[in-house]
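Teaching note: in complex prediction, the entire set of molecules is handled at once rather than each chain in isolation. The prompt given to students was simply: 'Predict the structure of this complex.' The entities are:
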Amino acid sequence: MAKKIAPAALAAPKRFELLTLGDELLLGRTANAHLAFLGAQLARRGVQLAANVVLPDDAETIAAQLARSWARSAVVITTGGLGPTSDDCTREAVAEVLGRKLVFDREVEKAISARFATLGRKMTHNNLKQAWRPEGAEALPNPFGTAPGLWIEQDGKVLVMLPGPPNELEPMWANEVLPRLVRRKLVGRSESYVQLRTAGVGESALETRLQPLIAKYPGVDVAFCAHAWAVDVRFGWHRGKAGEAQARKLAGEAQALLGDEVFAVGDDSLAEAVADLLRQDDKTLAVAESGSGGLLASVFTDLPGASKFFQGGVVCYRNSGKVIMLDIPEALLSQHGAISAETAVAMATGVCENFVADYGLSLTCCAGPGACCGDKAAGTVFVGLHSPDGGWCKRLEYPGTAAAVRARAINAALDWLRRELLRAHRAKPVAAPVKPVKAAKGRKRK
Amino acid sequence: MAKKIAPAALAAPKRFELLTLGDELLLGRTANAHLAFLGAQLARRGVQLAANVVLPDDAETIAAQLARSWARSAVVITTGGLGPTSDDCTREAVAEVLGRKLVFDREVEKAISARFATLGRKMTHNNLKQAWRPEGAEALPNPFGTAPGLWIEQDGKVLVMLPGPPNELEPMWANEVLPRLVRRKLVGRSESYVQLRTAGVGESALETRLQPLIAKYPGVDVAFCAHAWAVDVRFGWHRGKAGEAQARKLAGEAQALLGDEVFAVGDDSLAEAVADLLRQDDKTLAVAESGSGGLLASVFTDLPGASKFFQGGVVCYRNSGKVIMLDIPEALLSQHGAISAETAVAMATGVCENFVADYGLSLTCCAGPGACCGDKAAGTVFVGLHSPDGGWCKRLEYPGTAAAVRARAINAALDWLRRELLRAHRAKPVAAPVKPVKAAKGRKRK
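The expected output is the structure of the full assembly:
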């Protein structure tokens, strides 16, 4: 049996389970985005999911697992299996386990018809399957799709059924489900841990450095999580014996000990840390990349207000693109190769000057087999940085798959820029008498 | 209990379960990439995972679930929980359930020390935790990390323990685990379904169109899976009563009925379909994007040999970037706005001409709240296409989150280019007497 969860913020700690339904998940055709989303949403409110079970679209299997999960949990959330096609069968399984019959909901039928009318699309007969619900279930409106969610309370427990598409599930969670869970005191209102995010230190080395501090606070629940080039440390009070004050004290001491290795307290990404530093000093950034093909630019995509500091980027797979778009001399490319320190610096400088930015960051790497790398080994990465103080390059070597190399290279590049921005910020005079007029930079034209 | 799986290709159908361990998964901090990877790997070999259970790093919980999964399955695969930090405890749980003691493996210790020496990093004491294994377990070498995998056979069943980091797990699966499973006839050697991937038709409409055909072959296992702007249909013979011949016949008839809606037979992505068409006619592509910030360019990143047809891309968040890098007149931007048909066409034309490509594809969209969209509503997307025959634009409206809007916009853009490439290919004379010399295009310079 699972360990009991005891979040200090909640009156009555409860066991939550998530059942994620869909052959496409077990066949590896769709990533289980619901676990990532719902797990994070619940964690912020002091609840750690006790388990997530992924099951096929098979009524018998779903019913068996639901019966088991329902018996041992206070809240069971299901996702998927509510669609119109014939392989979706969750409603039937739920009705069977809860001993309720399925009824046809005229209101839901109307909402489905209205949605098709709005979109100007023809409703096919199988769409009406989505208007059936277990008797007594509350339909949760779905403004972004045809399948409504369902909320069922029985025996002091809650069953929440959510539609599969993330763009339908996520707003329904925020607008319908979370407020109901808060009202019933099943989730808290505040965060239940402090998280330090670090970059540039390995997981083992980090634990070793923190061990003396952790030993001072034995009741705090400490967990490490390594990503590419970054390790998070969470100091929690929902499972450990110590309370919030102890966890916060330990987190504060750990932060002081680690210094600049910590790039965020909370959930901010490396890109957000970089963005904050750029905004703070009113600086702008442009990026150039080859083998990472748009991934470096895309880390800024989801940041609100990115257009304030992010000028843009250039993806140049071929040398011709580097010459045309980044003004890199052909002689430099033929002498040093596309994957070289010289090219990385020229890319950073070129994109910085052409986009009229303050900082230019570049990545040129041989991510892995199949890439065209000349004499460089797979996993070789050059990061170029052009700043108001000059241009530099770093050479890095990473093992692993092409995707792993790219992810690490991007984080290493962001972390380098972050540390450079911190250094520049600290080097600034505290009270600059007159802000110097920024020298006008133009695009180099040959 | 789960329905029995009976893949025709396998001598003895067996039940596989995947246990994915890690608080970080349940807390939504890391996506469950292992389910996607291992599910797809097994599906190709005729095995559908019966279940995936995600559990916290808690020895008691892991042991309880492992005992249940072990009792009902022929193969249990665990991922994660083998790392050096103190919250990893899978070895202990496995030893308990299988009734074996943990032994210290000198060979593994040597391999860990050697790896640290190669990387020039200092080994900390907790790394040696990874050298413990249940007695009788075979250590699977890990060239990309310190934690070896483990292979255990007992009572005619198999337990496979894999490390958490995907760049360690994936090569270990391919090089160590899959060959052992094939030798023991636990997985097949051939695919066990035919998949048609379609774009531009909704899931319900697709099922309605295919229904008369599906009714002709009642024994074939047909499953639909909707992604953003794309729906896959799988015709399988590992669960249905009909054999491979029937499934393939139905798939062939469905493909003929759907025509150009089908962009791939198999697993190819829309980007791969576009890449194949470009390579087939020896054409090149460049892309320009604003709100999708590098995501359109990045769909080509993972394709081997992308440099053959992908010239590159420009990400321009701000109008200044569009003017400088894409030669869009400032007057056009101020008159029509950044999110407009006119700008989309100018972006496609500008990037096509500047990168000296045959086709230019552009996306300018107001993905969602927080973006800077002028008078356009969130979800408004303009796709621009510049081809040798001229430039066009499409306006699209999508509901949902910013990420959903971007994903659909990218697929819609790729699908439009695909259909245009198909049209151009068919319009070509079957036997061109002399291949015309391509007109030299230069970069417009103001």
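Point out the following to students. Chain B has three domains: 16-183, 193-265, 270-427. Confidence is low (pLDDT under 50) at residues 1-12, 435-446 of chain B.
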